[in-house]
Amino acid sequence: MSESRPVVTILLPLALVGYALVAVAAARWWISGLAAPVVAILLWRVHPRARFAAYVFLSVVALRGVLTHRWAAVAFAAAAVGLMQTAAARRVWPRLRLSSG
After folding, report:
1. pLDDT at 96
2. Mean pLDDT value across residues 41-50
3. In this predicted model, what pLDDT tens digit does every residue of 7-19 receive, in sequence order?
4. How far apart are the C-alpha atoms of 4 and 17, rounded to whole Å?
5. CA 10 to chain centre
6. pLDDT in the model for residue 34
7. How many CB atoms within 10 Å of residue 61?
8. H or E element that contains 13
């Protein structure tokens, strides 16, 4: 039997793809619209650096939203970071650890 994925591991990548569509179509934020699917793919494939990439991307989205007074972008970034704090998200996308090398 295969173990099902937690809902957050489906919701967050889909939300990033939705964000990409809105970023390109409505806001004309081309770089952000191109970066969001890349982060979504990293999250979907459970890449070891996916959590870090998501935090960096969402921080940029929030900062851009504040600077341009697009509060929906700030709210999206805050909600996505909030999802990253759930126990399910922490299990799937663990925090980076320093290697002793």
Report:
1. 77
2. 94
3. 999 999 999 999 9
4. 21
5. 11
6. 95
7. 25
8. helix 7-22
CA distance 87 to 101: 29
Q: Which residue has the tokens 């070891």?
A: 48
> What gap in Å lies between CA 52 and CA 48, rounded to an integer?
9
Count the residues in the chain: 101
From the list 90, 69, 70, the residue with the least C-alpha distance to 81 is: 90
Within its chain, how far is the Cα of 25 from the centroid? 19
Rounded Cα gap, residues 30 and 73, in angstroms: 14
pLDDT band of 26, cuts 50, 70, 90: confident
Q: Which amino acid is at 99?
A: S
